[in-house]
UniProtKB/TrEMBL annotation, chain A:
SUPFAM superfamilies: HydB/Nqo4-like. The keyword Cell cycle does not apply. Its EC number is 1.12.1.2. The gene is hoxH. This is NAD-reducing hydrogenase HoxS subunit beta. InterPro entries: Ni-dep_hyd_lsu, Ni-dep_hyd_lsu_Ni_BS, NiFe-Hase_large. Ni(2+) binds at residues 63, 66, 415. Fe cation binds at residues 66, 418. Its cofactor is Fe cation; Ni(2+).
From TrEMBL, chain B:
SUPFAM superfamilies: HydA/Nqo6-like. The keyword Oxidoreductase applies. Its EC number is 1.12.1.2. It is an enzyme of class 1 (oxidoreductase). PANTHER family: COENZYME F420-REDUCING HYDROGENASE, GAMMA SUBUNIT, HYDROGENASE SMALL SUBUNIT. The lineage of its organism: Bacteria, Pseudomonadati, Planctomycetota, Planctomycetia, Pirellulales. The keyword Oxidoreductase applies. It comes from the Bacteria. This is NAD-reducing hydrogenase HoxS subunit delta.
Amino acid sequence: MTQRTIKVNAMTRVEGEGGLYLKLRGNVVEEIRLEIYEPPRFFEAFLRGRPLEEVPDITARICGICPVAYQMSSIHALESALGMTISPEIRKLRRLLYCGEWIESHALHVYLLNAPDFLGYDSGLDMAAEYPDEVNRGLRMKKHGNQILEALGGRAIHPINVAVGGFYRCPRRDELQRLIPDLQWCLDAAIETTRWVATFDFPNFQSDYQLVSLSHDDEYPMNEGRIATSLGESIAVSDFENEFEERQVAHSTALHSLRKKTGAAYFLGPLARVGLNTDRLSPTAKRLADEVGITWPCYNPFQSIVARSLELVHAFEEALAILREYQPARPAKINYEIQSGEGCAATEAPRGLLYHRYHFDDDGKIAEAKIVPPTSQNQPQIESDLRRWVTQILTDDDAATARKCENLVRCYDPCISCSTHFLKLKVDRV
Amino acid sequence: MSKPKLGVFKFASCDGCQLSLLSAEDQLLELAGAVEIGYFLEATSKIAPGPYDIALVEGSITTPHDVERIQQVRRDCKFLITIGACATAGGIQALRNWADCDEFVQAVYASPQFISTLATSTAIADHVSVDFELRGCPINQYQLIEVIGSLLAGRRPRTRVHSVCLECKRRGTVCVMVAQGTACLGPVTQAGCNAICPSFNRGCYGCHGPAAQPNLVSITNQFASDGVPKEQIVRSLRSFNGYAPEFRVEGDRLDASQESGE
């Protein structure tokens, strides 16, 4: 029986660095590893001793693509520890900031990272030669997502305006409302995007996933709620560590997260969010979800691009609603008194649920920090998917096999930089 | 004439600075037409071997393997430009340089023996010669376009080395230190961000690193006389550019004087 090793030394069109390793005996997969060799950066360690108000600025630096997610999860966890309730106006502005991040990240992923896989290009930039209107549409949506972040957060990457308790300054009405005409154009562009990606040729590949996302009675989940699963569970965020557990594996600097009691892998991200919260989508996104001919919840990871596009529609529609009725919050920031405390929170990063827990002392200095990013949670599921997918696409040509494996991994939009505390395909054919 | 070949390389970082290139939405396709993208893992699966005319390097050096890899990048390129605080000053992960890294590994990982890392996070220029450093955490995309554009035109990049204070004055922002007594690193921090923080009512936290010839002793004395505890001043210098020489020297001086009780 021939042995064969397929290796991807460095995955492309993902954020951060990692590879894939596959060991085959004939057509039987003996070993499969998603290797995350992104160097560890030790955020949880060096947060200790820093005052709690510095935490959002520091955790933002975990990821340049989804800094808002890190800021929001940490701020909510700290506010919970301080026993704070924020005003409805500040809460709405935080959702607006999250809409900006979903737009920027989803538009980047749909057009520049993922669509080239379906259309047979090496990059979105190459794709632009034959699909100029589409790529320009994606770039323009991304730009206007960034403009929301700039108007409210000061800048798109590592925003500076979020604080424990609210914002350093609420933008003036005109600073935000001038975004409305562009965002109206974007809403139509996102609708076209959804219809376009829904026509892609999706492989017939389904898994019996355990979908996990936040869920909220009144709204599409972003910054709070309970944890819902496709098993019908509803878990309080404070029970996260009783229900989900991180384990270290030798081949990855990212930890692997599994269901604690059953050891089962689970699936996070837009496909899970849309699947578990279809009825909470904005009216236009909900109509489109029905129109595209997918039964939700959907269990085909390749159709994540449709879910991601539906979330673009949702994010533009919600951002417009918030902007139309915007009045600056007064005060912009709610005061608090420093005392010792412990608190946790989870929010929905573009790639899925992001959990933070902090413990701080009487002086408000961090004593312990725990951060569980979406990619470490998705990693066991990605490996499990690859094990099944590779038998379906195995060809004699290692490069083609490797590329199809990468296509599957990219559907998850793994954020490797975030997950280290994540890709190269290496296949051993034995 | 063939197009200049561009490589974008990443070391320990958050990807934010290379994302700045993809965030230049209005210029991106034009730029992609003006150069041959030889290596840019985040943007394209097409990988062309070196040599490269321009290498943009993001991230700091934190593993033995990366020490070797940066040497190879240097051998493979004509102009090496570092982008961002990690590549020019070691980044936030350089906080390990003042701590026990083994203890950090043990705090994060149950099986520390699988983790291969250096006890330090250092700037690219500590390992190889660098032709131009673009500061910022993150870099400013307009400065990045200026740097790439100037190289394509064969001239020196026009980026600012003066302090954030001038940008504040240009914007007409009222000084947060003078008017509100808010500690602000603007006087010693290099311009380039357009002085965002003071315009949002908070002090500059130094994310673009030290300005040219900053007087750190003068500003930390000012902070101290405004009642900012020494420990807090040290911490404010030891953040995203904490290992940049100017910030490092002053932070270490204050830290030592704190320990000796001066």
